[in-house]
Every structure is written in structure tokens, then in C-alpha cells.
Amino acid sequence: MTETTSGPARGSRAKAGKPEKAEKAGRPAGGLRVERIHTTPGVHPYDEVVWERRDVVMTNWRDGSVNFEQRGVEFPEFWSVNAANIVTSKYFRGAVGTPQRETSLKQLIDRVVKTYRAAGEEHGYFASPADAEIFEHELAYAVLHQVFSFNSPVWFNVGTQQPQQVSACFILSVDDSMESILDWYKEEGMIFKGGSGAGLNLSRIRSSKELLSSGGNASGPVSFMRGADASAGTIKSGGATRRAAKMVVLDVDHPDIEAFIETKVKEEEKIRALRDAGFDMDLGGDDITSVQYQNANNSVRVNDAFMKAVESGSKFGLRARMTGEVLEEVDARALFRKMAEAAHVCADPGIQYDDTINHWHTSPESGRISASNPCSEYMHLDNSSCNLASLNLMKFLRDDAEGNQAFDAERFAKVVELVITAMDISICFADFPTAKIGETTRAFRQLGIGYANLGALLMATGHAYDSDGGRALAGAITSLMTGTSYRRSAELAATVGPYEGYARNSSAHNRVMKQHAEANDSARRMDDLDTPVWAAATEAWQDVLRLGKKNGFRNAQASVLAPTGTIGLMMDCDTTGVEPDLALVKFKKLVGGGSMQIVNNTVPKALKRLGYQDEQVEAIVAHIADHGNVVDAPGLKPEHYEVFDCAMGERAISPMGHVRMMAAAQPFLSGAISKTVNMPSSSTVEDVEEIYLQGWKLGTKALAVYVENSKVGQPLSAKKKDDAKADTTEEKPVEKVIEYRPVRRRLPKGRPGITTSFTVGGAEGYMTANSYPDDGLGEVFLKMSKQGSTLAGMMDAFSIAVSVGLQYGVPLETYVSKFTNMRFEPAGMTDDPDVRMAQSIVDYIFRRLALDFLPFETRSALGIHSAAERERHLETGSYEPDDDLDVESLAQSAPRRAEQPPAAPQPPEAEAPAPAAAHNSTELAEMQFGLNADAPLCFSCGTKMRRAGSCYLCEGCGSTSGCS
């Protein structure tokens, strides 16, 4: 994207913590020449899109209260409802209802982008004002078109009167003194107050098996964790921007390691005991706050010596913190087993591989990497921070000249250069929560560029997530991203100087660059999509080695793979970070309110890539819409099923599939990967051990596991509680499986019925609904337009389909839940006082049928009431059944089953209607698959959050439990 102009040799360097203009710091003259990527000379990016005004109203699903409301906000027409809602509620600054409140996406982008441009000009980044203007326009275009996004603190703080904090990730440190421990509490609390997260390693604190200088016994790090956990929980409940997020790490050779491993296991036992005693121990429950150690992710830092001892079954020494002597020898396999058992029960502790992490450390002369941020992707020096930005990979998928799919490696590299330049500029003006963090960050200038939508990209290109082709494409993109980032870092070093700590660490930094380049060269090329990307990455790494040796590097770190929670929603991404898709059917918000289920947009693209015709694609998509998966989809080849495997569902990706994907990307990242390896409920402790062992062997830096339905303190799953009680150690006899088929029950010749005339949006029609004499609705006839017309034919066919379904036992409420709120023309006013507005004819028909044939409790749960009931609600505050209906002549419809022989057991109940209760894609997937997604309820809007890396994200309002 850019090139540099050379200047005189670099002179003295500005002191850390005091960034100055380039000329004052003795830096080379000149600056970057900025090349256009997307924009047109003389045309502002804002003038190339269509803008519209919208009303943003966000409610709490638990009680219906309005959480946020701002009307008349301005967004491009192609931005989704969800993206506009989240950006308005999270990122617009100023009090709502005041002139200072931002009302347009233009204002938000200008506030940030113009600040970056001004800082870049002030600190000598650009060769000319024209280059600075191109930089501003390209940055604005990329954000406007959802090509990339900075992390949340940038949108919160940059360009406002408050401190210009741009970092989301922090690493603290603590020493073996009470003063240091109290400083830890204070620093962590201030970071939480600002809505960010922090991690640290407690291994410098002496163990409970060592003596104090006074002769007494030390408390040990686990006891101090209790106080920090209580502080985090209190600050979280105070209503900060997001939940307190923290990571606590302890080295495997610490004498208190077993107590550390068991902290959450013991609390899980407490949860079970209190739950059985009748206390409310679900997440968000009144009594869960009595449980300790729940506000942090815990990780054990293991080294190669320990892992080799596990393999060989030998002893391993636990060492005193003050003297380094071995206090106790333990069986390495037994300790490793304890870790796996704890993770199997409560998902903690995770594992971090110390020697692997420090093998890729660019600045070892300045200190070891001992900890990570809360989501485990940022790993560098203590008392440091990292600002993040992520690219939307789907924006770089295009069709080539022959009409085949291709990843636009050239444009991707140019955008990476643009974003890395902006990220480095931000350190020049950024504020930091502590002086120590500010000093370290300015001295090492750590950046964390990453990406989102990898899962969607792989599916759209016809790659299974767990496949050699999928891993090759992911590795190639990651390598190109990091290689381009370090190339730009070397170019920046020539213009504005290398990072302050580079001189001391130059040998190690260039060694790590060579390791990246060698990993790139040895990576396996698979197909026509990844091979060109590998070629571009190879060229980038060659430039890195050449320019780095000549100029040094501006940044000690360049890339990570973060959860991309809120910013992923801002960019309308289907998947976050390195994660696969959650499920094939999504929950989509509609303009003007309401929601609907949709099949992922990536599915048709994948089918076309695999060679299916339009008619086949339509049939397969329809099957997915009905079943939530591709199994037995008409015309879909079984060998293509794996392309559509997701994180949840009938064909969930295997745990090792997640680990192998992490291993494919890890050699090409400066930092690590935020990810949890999901494991089915049938997984054993041995399975967890194998995941932790393979994570080490495959070269990942850190990982965590979650075994489905293992935790007690979580929202109840879609499965019935009785299902959980079915777990037993007793061996059950094998039962013969009997397949029951529905039996059609035809109506008698004479049957009671109701004929209703109606008008919807000016279109007239008639509906006749006939009942069984004793058991509810049995058939429906619809007449619209003239006989022989297309509309009349479709109404006849639709009537027959519904009638046959009713006679085979499909409950009327299932039809009502599926067809109400369906939107198409004609729609609008009706002549029915009970249903004044209808979104379509089908919407009206099933609302009318619900009023005529469903019990009050059933239709009330679906939000369907008569005019009289609504009037009573306004007067009394509660709905009451409409007693005017003649229930003697109309038998109430209820869920019916096909008749079976008396001795036979009843067949399973029909699937529950998803839309009636689901509020986001996570809840929808849970209802479809009968699973639990392991996530807390959102503290802002009450919906179920979903995994985003090793943290959580709310699709409804954009809140996160992490640091992206």
C-alpha cells in the first residue's frame, strides 16, 4: 500500500513515556507515501453510499423494559439492524437527548479517524498532507464498509475528553510483598472500572509451605486470589462497561499448584450442595455470589520438563519461590491428571506452554513472558498492554476472471499495512491505566492485528473447518497477515525509528522473524485458493528478513487472534476470531422490530463452490431451514457434509479439530489464540489429558477446554431437567428400539366449522376452518382471487398441506409459531378487530386460528390476544381469557399424537417451536439441538451469551466478558 522515503541516519531517541514529534526526537526526515486501495480521488467515502435514518430501541428480554433508545440515527443502508443497534448503544458518545450526543456513524468514524490522522501528521508518519488525507479516507472507507474494526476502547475513548485509552489487553505483575499485592488489587480494580481486563502470574508469591521473614507461615497465592476475586465481583456488579475479566496464572512447579488447581473444583462441589439444598445457584441467581474464584480464568503454566515427565511417568520437583530449592517431588502424571480432572468438571484450569511461548519471544533480554491477558491471546512482558484490531476475512473473498472464488491477497496485504500504521500511531497519543504499563507499552509498542469470520470464509470456499485444505488456507492468511505487519513495522522503523527495546533485543527479534519465515516455507500447500496466498506470504517474509536487518522493527509484537466479540457484530461477521460457525441457522433482527430464522448466507456460496446447481442449492437450504443440519439433505453428497460442520449440533466439530486449527495458525502469530476447545458431554478425563498433551506437541501456546454440561452454575439447557437425572453408573439393559410412524386421522363426513371473511392490506379472502367433533382443528380451506390463478392455486396447495399435517397430529401451536410474523405483501390493515395489523396473509390466518382454536394459556405465551383481552390488560394490567368465545361448539386444539396400540409407549413429543422463546442464535441453536452452549446470561439484556474465543459475547446488545 505504501512506500517510504529515506532520510538521514537516526539520532537520539525520545524517552519512554514522552513521545515527541519526529524532528524533535532526531528521527529521519520523510514519511510514508500512502497508496489508494478503495477510495476515489476527489470523492469522500461517505458520498459513495446511501444513508438512512433508523430508530434504535433495545429491550431486556427478561422483563420487557427498554434498555436503550435513540431515534433518528444515521447509518448506511447495508448495515444490519444488529450492527447499527450495537454501535449506537455502545460506541456513540454524549448523553442521549443532548446536542452533544452522536447521531450518525459519520460522527463516530470522524471522531476516531481524524484523531489518528492528526497524530500521524504530528509525529512524522506521512510524507505530505496529501498522503495524510488518503490515509484518512482509506481508514474511513474500511470502517464504513466493515472491512476491519479497531477494538472497543478505541471507539469508546478516542477523540473524547476522557483519557485516550486504546488498549483492551493488559498484563500486570505482582511480587512477594504486601505492598506489591495491594498495588495489584488497586491496578486491577482501576482496569476493571474502565471496562478492560488484565492477567498476571502469581508465581513470585511464596507458597503456604514457606516461612515469612518473621518466622510465621506464608498465606500463599491462593489466599490472595480470594480477595482479588471479591474485588472483581464487586466492580463487575457496579455496572461497568462490561464484566470484569481477568486471568490468573501459576507455574506448575509452584508448591501450591495443587491447591490452585482445586480452587474451582471445590467451589463447584459447594454449588452442587447448595443447589440440592434449594438455593438458586444458576448464573445470575441470587445465591451464586457466595461462590468464590468465579471472576477469573485460571491457567497452569507448564514447561517442557514437566510435559516430558508426564510422558515418561517420572517425578517432578516443586520449588520454593525464595530459594529455588525443591521442597517436594510429585508424580508428574498424577499432577497432570488432577489438572485434567478439574478441567473436566469446571473448565478450569486452562493450560499455557511456557517454553513454546518464550521460544517465540522477540524481547527476551527485557524479561520473560510469564502471563497473558484474560482471553489468552496477548502474551508479552509484564506491565504491558496491547491494542487490537481485526479484519473481516469475508470482505476479501472475490470471484476471479474465470468466475472462480479467490482470496484477494494483494488487497488484504494493503489493508493490513493501513491498519498496522494506524495502530502504531495510536500509541503516540494513547493514555494508560498505570505509569508502568505506559512506560513498557511505549518502549515496545505491542500491536495485535487479527481477523474474524474465518469459519464463514472456510465454509463459503467449500472447506471443512477440520480439514487439511481448511487449515492450509487459514495458515496462509495468518502468515500473510503477520508477515505484512512486520514488513510494515520495518518500514515504519526506517521512518520514525524502531521500538526503544529493539537495540537490546535485535538478535532475538530477528531470530523469531526467521522462525516465522521457515514455518511459512515448510507449510503444506493444498489447492488453488491457498497457494497464491502462500506465495504472497513468502514474499512478505523475505522482505521482513531483509528490511528488519537493515532498519529494525517499530513493534515488538504485531499479531494475535482475539475473540472479536463486539467488533465482530459491528462488522456483521458470522463467526468470531478463529472459531467455526455456531450453527447453520441464525437468528436475525428485522427493521422495525421482530426477528426471524435464516440459513447462513455462507451456505449457498459453499454449495456453489462445490458444484451444485441453483435448484439443488435451493432444496438443500430449505432442508437446513427445517432441520438445522445437512444430514439427508436432498442431493447433497455425504462427502460434503463435513463442509457444514459447526461448533454445535448433530455434526459438531471434534475437539481435536479445534486444536489442529489452532496449530495451523499459531506459527504465524506473534501472540497466541483466544479459543476454548468444546468437548461433548461423553468426553472423559483421559480425553482432556490427550487434548492438553496434543496442544503441547502441536506447538500451540495455550488452550482451555469445556466439557458440555459439566458446570452446575450456568443457565439451564434446553434439555429437560429430568434428562440430567438419567445419568447413572448402573448398566442399563439394551432395549429394543421401536419406530413409530404417525397415523392420519380423517374427519367425519359431518364436521363443525367456522367461515371467516377477511381483508389484509386491501386483499380479500375467505377461510373455512373445520374441527373434529371432540378434538380440535382438523382442516383449513382458503380462497383468494379467481379460480385458476397462481395465488388461488398456491392457497389451495397451502391449505391441503396444513390440513394433512393437522390430521397427522401436528399441533396447531406449532403452525402458529412458525407462520406468525412472516412478512410479505399484501400486508397492513385488516377488517378484524382482534387482529388490526398483519404482516402478511399467512400471519393473519394463523393469528385468527389461534384466537379461535387455541387455549388462552397457549396463545398468550405466543403473544396473541383478542381485542377484549388487550383492553382488559390496559385497564387491569393483566390479561384474562376471553369468555365470550363459545367453546362448546369449538373443541380446543391441543398437541395431538397419532393413535398407537394401548400397550405401546408414547412416541416422542414434537419439537418445541424455536422462535417463540429464542432471542439470539445461541438460544436458537440450543433449542434445535437440545444442547447447552455453556454461557452466562448477558448482564445488560438478559439473553444467553455465546462463546467468543475463551470469552463470551452477547449477540443482542454487544456486551462481552472479555477484552475485545
Automatic annotation (TrEMBL):
<feature type="region of interest" description="Disordered">
    <location>
        <begin position="891"/>
        <end position="919"/>
    </location>
</feature>
<dbReference type="InterPro" id="IPR000788">
    <property type="entry name" value="RNR_lg_C"/>
</dbReference>
<feature type="domain" description="TSCPD">
    <location>
        <begin position="751"/>
        <end position="851"/>
    </location>
</feature>
<dbReference type="InterPro" id="IPR024434">
    <property type="entry name" value="TSCPD_dom"/>
</dbReference>
<feature type="domain" description="Ribonucleotide reductase class II vitamin B12-dependent N-terminal">
    <location>
        <begin position="56"/>
        <end position="146"/>
    </location>
</feature>
<dbReference type="GO" id="GO:0004748">
    <property type="term" value="F:ribonucleoside-diphosphate reductase activity, thioredoxin disulfide as acceptor"/>
</dbReference>
<dbReference type="Pfam" id="PF02867">
    <property type="entry name" value="Ribonuc_red_lgC"/>
</dbReference>
<dbReference type="InterPro" id="IPR013344">
    <property type="entry name" value="RNR_NrdJ/NrdZ"/>
</dbReference>
<keyword id="KW-1015">Disulfide bond</keyword>
<dbReference type="GO" id="GO:0071897">
    <property type="term" value="P:DNA biosynthetic process"/>
</dbReference>
<keyword id="KW-0547">Nucleotide-binding</keyword>
<dbReference type="GO" id="GO:0000166">
    <property type="term" value="F:nucleotide binding"/>
</dbReference>
<feature type="domain" description="Ribonucleotide reductase large subunit C-terminal">
    <location>
        <begin position="167"/>
        <end position="706"/>
    </location>
</feature>
<dbReference type="InterPro" id="IPR050862">
    <property type="entry name" value="RdRp_reductase_class-2"/>
</dbReference>
<dbReference type="InterPro" id="IPR013678">
    <property type="entry name" value="RNR_2_N"/>
</dbReference>
<dbReference type="Pfam" id="PF08471">
    <property type="entry name" value="Ribonuc_red_2_N"/>
</dbReference>
<feature type="compositionally biased region" description="Basic and acidic residues">
    <location>
        <begin position="17"/>
        <end position="26"/>
    </location>
</feature>
<dbReference type="GO" id="GO:0050897">
    <property type="term" value="F:cobalt ion binding"/>
</dbReference>
<keyword id="KW-0237">DNA synthesis</keyword>
<dbReference type="GO" id="GO:0031419">
    <property type="term" value="F:cobalamin binding"/>
</dbReference>
<feature type="region of interest" description="Disordered">
    <location>
        <begin position="1"/>
        <end position="33"/>
    </location>
</feature>
<protein>
    <recommendedName>
        <fullName>Vitamin B12-dependent ribonucleotide reductase</fullName>
        <ecNumber>1.17.4.1</ecNumber>
    </recommendedName>
</protein>
<keyword id="KW-0560">Oxidoreductase</keyword>
<comment type="similarity">
    <text>Belongs to the ribonucleoside diphosphate reductase class-2 family.</text>
</comment>
<dbReference type="Pfam" id="PF12637">
    <property type="entry name" value="TSCPD"/>
</dbReference>
<keyword id="KW-0170">Cobalt</keyword>
<comment type="function">
    <text>Catalyzes the reduction of ribonucleotides to deoxyribonucleotides. May function to provide a pool of deoxyribonucleotide precursors for DNA repair during oxygen limitation and/or for immediate growth after restoration of oxygen.</text>
</comment>
<keyword id="KW-0846">Cobalamin</keyword>
